[in-house]
Amino acid sequence: MSDIFKRHIAKFAEVNDKEFSKILTFFQVQKVKKKENLLVEGHICTTNYFVLKGCLRKFFVNTKGVEQTTEFAIENWWITDLVAYEHKLPSEFYIQAVENAEVLSIENSTEATLLSEFPVMERYFRFIYQRAYAASQMRMKYLYDLSKEEFYHHLNDHYPEFVQRIPQYLIASYLGFTPEYLSEIRAKRRS
Amino acid sequence: MSDIFKRHIAKFAEVNDKEFSKILTFFQVQKVKKKENLLVEGHICTTNYFVLKGCLRKFFVNTKGVEQTTEFAIENWWITDLVAYEHKLPSEFYIQAVENAEVLSIENSTEATLLSEFPVMERYFRFIYQRAYAASQMRMKYLYDLSKEEFYHHLNDHYPEFVQRIPQYLIASYLGFTPEYLSEIRAKRRS
What we know:
Chains A, B: This is Crp/Fnr family transcriptional regulator. The structure is a homodimer. Chain A contains nine helices and eight strands. Chain A has helices at residues 3-10, 17-24, 82-87, 108-117, 120-145, 148-158, 160-165, 168-175, 179-190, and strands spanning 28-32, 37-39, 47-53, 56-61, 67-73, 78-79, 94-97, 101-107. In chain A, the strands form two sheets. In chain A, strands 1-8-3-6 form a four-stranded antiparallel beta sheet. A four-stranded antiparallel beta sheet of chain A has the order 2-7-4-5. The model of chain A has no long low-confidence stretch (mean pLDDT 94). The interface between A and B is medium-sized, with 35 and 35 residues.
């Protein structure tokens, strides 16, 4: 199962089998049940997660008491509350399994040791964060430029498997509208 | 003037004077006049900018023909269209000087050489992108959670010098409302 992580590292950095075996010892493999929380609002966030299998989401509970999803992570994605993780602060978010999942987890302090012993992993994480930031720059543009309905169609056109895979009420929560409104949009497009 | 860059690197990575002198040779110092464009929509984006002095902004022209600002960069900030920069693609954005500015610029291909000759810079850029992505995660939360008016007050409370420094019509463009509406909000708060 850790092969998926090995292949992911190999996309960005050169790590041989022996090094990879050592790198892997810095991580824990964790199974998470659907709806189980890996992070709860108000708790100190010390862990970063790499999804081996399944799907996680990050959300916060807004002032109206509604869960607002801000991020999904499927296979090969990292997910944490990055501000809280770097500074070991209480988080404003939840991280929860959307499907039964298997993740690699690493603690903040362990990551520091990993990076000092395997500087090649600086390159790996540089790429991870560079691409994540690049994606968020584009998402910001869509948030300004597209209506919610257009953003849904954009997702559907560019990431059809993702939209199929995620329960519709969570897609609605990510887009910031009600499940009923999402049904309407979908019906409109089909007709 | 390059001292500001040296101090910025020192925050995240260990680089001695001799190394820094060599690292600096990978960059160009560039003076930019207020309103001058460093990047134009449709042009291939090959350059990444570090602001030594002054202020830049990134914007796109939306479907209504209105400039929508998505990002500012003041001293110690990097700015580019990261998707286009990594893949050498035509950009969907403009990067323009808000004030007369001085920047360090590096070309994509030069950055690759820099990173292979000075792997310590992988650590530096890992931190840059990690923090930028962390900030964008929080911004995403505010975009979902706060009204435009609340977001303005949040900016004003947390970054008063920034709000003072940037022309009001650009703050309005960043927040996605008209300068007139911003004046109303400001008047309301004063009263």
